[in-house]
Specification:
Layout: E1 9-15, E2 18-25, E3 28-35, H1 46-51, E4 56-61, H2 78-92, E5 97-102, H3 104-114, E6 120-126, H4 137-142, H5 150-161, H6 168-180, H7 183-188, H8 199-202, E7 209-214, H9 222-228, E8 237-241, H10 248-251, H11 253-270, H12 276-283, E9 293-298, E10 304-306
Length: about 300
């Protein structure tokens, strides 16, 4: 069942080329700033936001070229999307905040965090595109046809993006959101962002990074993130979430919300500064067979450890 974000207030923030519609929900710091998937919208996170129990403030918006921001001019590259994210944060006057990025939004969040913006407490990366590209140019070019029609979007949902069928209303939402993107924005990711190597930038990230990977993800599987993300972000930790593919905010929103609640609780308890080691220990104490996730960490020398 779809979960509309009915209690969020709509506003606008100045960005390059115009005004960006933004949805906000009041609450305690740190504020969760949600950055959506290629072909998604702020609605992609509605089921997660509805299940948050932390009472934290929330910010969500459509990337330029998509949804309510469809008419904002390009370029639509990940550098420009990172500019927009930081403009939203500055425009809303956020103090302490967490960037929550899904897929393409995860790569945008990494790039924004690499600039070491003031107030950033942590990154939560959900099925993120990794900083070292996992797609070659030929595979990326094939994605340019993803939004050709309802049929192509539906096919991607069924065969690539999900481990289980979405409810009809959420499936329709994803089809409509994908088709609503302007053509330049639809092409910017496969023809640029997905194959861009940002590893030099991500090595500069200084905040704790928590990665949530879907066990059945066919786009950015845990093995790819182990190889192409964890070694290039200092202190990054990964939890493998069971029972989901690439669209975990729609497939298992309750598990994603739980992880975000745990993260914000730790930040709130720790005050202004806390260590990645503390994040790892406190988010995932000794394994509970019923928790639905498994933790993996990679040290800076690239060695993998399994808890």
């Amino acid at each position: 069942m779809s979960v509309p974000v009915n209690n969020m207030k709509s506003t606008e923030v100045d960005v390059t080329g115009g005004r960006l519609p933004v949805w906000t929900q009041p609450g305690e710091p740190p504020t969760l700033v949600f950055l959506h998937i290629w072909g998604g919208s702020h609605r992609t996170f509605a089921p997660v936001i509805a299940r948050l129990a932390s009472g934290c403030a929330v910010v969500s918006y459509d990337h330029r070229g998509w949804g309510a921001a469809r008419d904002l001019p390009g370029p639509y590259g990940i550098s420009e999307l990172a500019d927009d994210a930081l403009a939203v944060i500055a425009g809303l006057g956020l103090g302490r905040y967490v960037l929550v990025g899904h897929s393409m939004g995860g790569k945008v969040a990494q790039l924004a965090a690499s600039r070491r913006p003031e107030g950033l407490a942590a990154l939560a990366l959900i099925a993120p595109a990794p900083p070292r590209p996992a797609f070659d140019a030929k595979a990326a070019e094939a994605l340019t046809h993803a939004f050709d029609s309802r049929e192509t979007v539906s096919d991607a949902l069924e065969h690539m993006l999900t481990a289980q069928p979405l409810p009809p209303d959420l499936r329709e939402q994803m089809i409509n959101d994908g088709l609503a993107g302007n053509r330049e924005a639809q092409l910017a990711w496969p023809l640029g962002g997905i194959t861009m190597d940002i590893t030099a930038a991500t090595r500069a990230i200084e905040v704790p990074v928590h990665v949530l990977a879907g066990r059945q993800d066919r786009v950015d599987p845990p093995e790819s993130l182990q190889a192409n993300l964890l070694p290039f972000i200092p202190g990054a930790r990964m939890t493998v979430v069971e029972g989901t593919g690439h669209l975990s905010p729609l497939e298992v929103p309750e598990l994603i919300a739980k992880e975000l609640d745990q993260l914000t609780k730790l930040i709130h308890r720790g005050g202004e500064i806390f260590l990645a080691e503390d994040l790892h220990r406190d988010l995932h104490p000794p394994a509970d067979p019923e928790c639905g996730s498994k933790d993996i960490s990679t040290e800076e020398d690239g060695r993998k450890t399994h808890d």
